[in-house]
Amino acid sequence: MQFARDTKILSALLALAACLVFSSPHALAGYPERTIRIVVPFAPGGGTDVIARTLAQEMAKDLGASIIIENKPGAGTIIGTQSVAASPADGYTLLMGTFANAVNPSLNAKLPYDAHKDFAAVALIARSFNLVVVNPASPIKSIADLIAVAKAEPNKLSYGTYGTGTSAHLAGELFKHMAKVNLTTVPYKGAAPAITDLLGGQIQVIFTTVASAASLVAAGQLRAIAVTSAERSPAFPELPTVSEAGVAGYAAEAWYGLYAPAKTPPDIIDLLNKSAAKAVQSEAFKKLGVNEGLVMVAEPPEALDRYFNVEETRWRKVIQDAGIKIE
Fold first, then answer.
1. Coil, strand, or helix at residue 315?
2. How many whole angstroms separate alpha carbon 124 and alpha carbon 131?
3. Total-model pTM
4. Which of 64, 131, 137, 247 has its CA 20 to 30 A from that of 216?
5. pLDDT tens string 199-229
6. CATH of the domain at 300
7. How far apart are CA 237 and CA 231, in angstroms?
8. In this structure, what CATH number is given to the domain that contains residue 170?
9. CA neighbor of 256 nearest in space, from 78, 33, 98
10. Distance of alpha carbon 307 from alpha carbon 82, whole angstroms
11. What b/e sequence results for 308-326 when a residue is b if at least 16 CB atoms lie within 10 Å of its CB, and e otherwise?
């Protein structure tokens, strides 16, 4: 009798253990078994696309899986982002999130997704910054000069942007607010036409990406006067930050973070996070870091969540104070 009871108890425990095993995320131990997609909500060829492709290449080696990039531009990254929010939470569709993810909730009252509830953070991949550049023939040689000229001749200086709510735009708006100066905003469809007008004297300054300006700065066709990051960049050690050059506390960063749909199993998130951390240590990423002005991070999911919350709060205030709206 005792033996029979013990046998029944043992059988029940084994059955329970089996249920727990097969109902847990670890039942996905074969992941990844098919191609993983990283959705880039921008057109091919831009900085985010290049970073995502490098990440995919390195993570594919580590995971032993095929990882492809799917470009889904449109509506200020909303189209591509929404497609990931609506995808199965199985680890096979990921999003390369950016600065836009943190500002879109403040620019669009009716997003087709919830920036917090519909995504699971995977890894903060890298942070970047903009360069403050002027025409090399300009008398403006420093941030102090820029502020002095702007105050001496209100409304005369203008700066180029690459679209409402972009890092180039909001970096300029933050500068105007913190330096207490007025610069006229001139919108462009991209960096190239803005730089052309800067060289032609139609505008006086741009808060532009490293990728768009570094080669022109090196060739003497543009003059860089500061970086917008909180600390000096190893890529431009001679350039002061805007903060140390006269606007204390100023910092405007771009960033890149990997996301999955909400409810993606934690073990898959952990696996992807560890793979991304290995990827950013690669030689390919080190080279990319120099070319794009990146600071590699690859921190845990909770670090991306914290960073996102701080960015969203900070830029919401800038957007509200400047009265910026998507037309």
1. helix
2. 22
3. 0.82
4. 247
5. 999 999 999 988 788 889 999 999 999 999 9
6. 3.40.190.150
7. 10
8. 3.40.190.10
9. 98
10. 21
11. beebbebbeebbeebebee
